[in-house]
């Protein structure tokens, strides 16, 4: 299975010689177990077939500090239906061989510590995950996860907040694996009507300190916003709440059709 870094590299090589046609990766996010794990497995395949370059799979957690109301509600529904990490990974193990897009697992630090870092990493690798995002992982604690993850074949992506000073951005950029996740807003995830123009300045600042791919997430909910972020220089656009909301509306089959169309429209916007 291809790694996150390898996927970015392949996108870079497939890029048109025309510099105005920069290829930007699309990374949709869904919450595992909402509305159920069977639908999650189908959603992974639908996203994979409709333009997703990588897919972020959120593990439902009872105290999701970084998540906005849409994703919090999805996680709550999943937990109420009994969705647990073991079942999520069992589902992923079944579906991952059929996917082209690398799976990036999104989870909080406490479940990792509870299971033990190395057993957790081995478990998610065996299930097919190749990336990991831990939003509450302090930079100072990151090496304890980054080193064993790297040895296991899991790339841990660190987050840059819009308030981060240049010195901290440099530290994060040096340690982040796969890509660097730029949070476009101060606060939690969620749909916004426009992307803050400060993102453009942050992208330029980050470009001055690193050549690693940069993905922008939190608040992107429309194809036009995704295109804007691409034009500002992002290497990837991460879309969460807008996908989760569509998947949750109506019947599971209606939700799957909605995210297929939405993912396709986002892909066209960033290609």
UniProtKB/TrEMBL annotation:
Protein origin, superkingdom: Bacteria
Enzyme Commission number(s) from the entry: 4.2.1.20
InterPro entries noted in UniProt: Aldolase_TIM, RibuloseP-bd_barrel, Trp_synthase_alpha_AS, Trp_synthase_suA
An MF annotation (GO) of this entry: tryptophan synthase activity
Active-site residues, as the UniProt record annotates them: 56, 67
UniProt keyword Transmembrane helix present: no
UniProt keyword terms in alphabetical order: Amino-acid biosynthesis, Aromatic amino acid biosynthesis, Lyase, Tryptophan biosynthesis
Known pathway: Amino-acid biosynthesis; L-tryptophan biosynthesis; L-tryptophan from chorismate: step 5/5
Catalysed reaction, written as an equation: (1S,2R)-1-C-(indol-3-yl)glycerol 3-phosphate + L-serine = D-glyceraldehyde 3-phosphate + L-tryptophan + H2O
One of the record's GO cellular component terms: cytosol
Pfam families hit by this protein: Trp_syntA (PF00290)
NCBIfam families attached to this UniProt entry: trpA (TIGR00262)
Subunit structure, interactors included: Tetramer of two alpha and two beta chains.
Free-text function comment from the UniProt entry: The alpha subunit is responsible for the aldol cleavage of indoleglycerol phosphate to indole and glyceraldehyde 3-phosphate.
Similarity section: Belongs to the TrpA family.
HAMAP family per record: Trp_synth_alpha (MF_00131)
Protein name, entry field: Tryptophan synthase alpha chain
Source organism (scientific name): Lyngbya aestuarii BL J
């Amino acid at each position: 299975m291809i790694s996150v870094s390898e996927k970015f590299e392949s996108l870079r090589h497939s890029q048109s010689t025309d510099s105005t046609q920069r290829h930007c990766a699309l990374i949709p996010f869904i919450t595992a177990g909402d509305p159920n794990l069977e639908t999650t497995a189908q959603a992974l395949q639908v996203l994979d077939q409709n333009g997703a370059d990588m897919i972020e799979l959120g593990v439902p957690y009872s105290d999701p500090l970084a998540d906005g109301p849409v994703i919090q509600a999805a996680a709550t529904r999943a937990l109420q239906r009994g969705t647990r990490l073991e079942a999520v990974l069992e589902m992923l193990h079944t579906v991952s061989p059929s996917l082209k897009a690398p799976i990036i697992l999104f989870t909080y630090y406490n479940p990792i510590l509870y299971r033990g870092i190395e057993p957790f990493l081995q478990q998610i690798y065996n299930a097919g995950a190749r990336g990991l995002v831990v939003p509450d992982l302090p930079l100072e604690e990151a090496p304890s996860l980054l080193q064993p993850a790297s040895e296991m074949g899991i790339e841990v992506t660190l987050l840059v907040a819009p308030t981060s000073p240049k010195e901290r951005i440099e530290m994060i950029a040096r340690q982040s694996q796969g890509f660097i996740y730029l949070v476009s807003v101060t606060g939690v995830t969620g749909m916004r009507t426009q992307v803050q123009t400060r993102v453009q300045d942050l992208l330029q600042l980050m470009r001055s300190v690193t050549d690693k791919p940069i993905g922008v997430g939190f608040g992107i909910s429309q194809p036009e916003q995704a295109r804007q972020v691409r034009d500002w220089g992002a290497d990837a656009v991460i879309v969460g709440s807008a996908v989760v909301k569509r998947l949750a509306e109506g019947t599971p089959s209606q939700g799957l059709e909605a995210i297929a169309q939405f993912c396709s429209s986002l892909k066209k916007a960033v290609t």
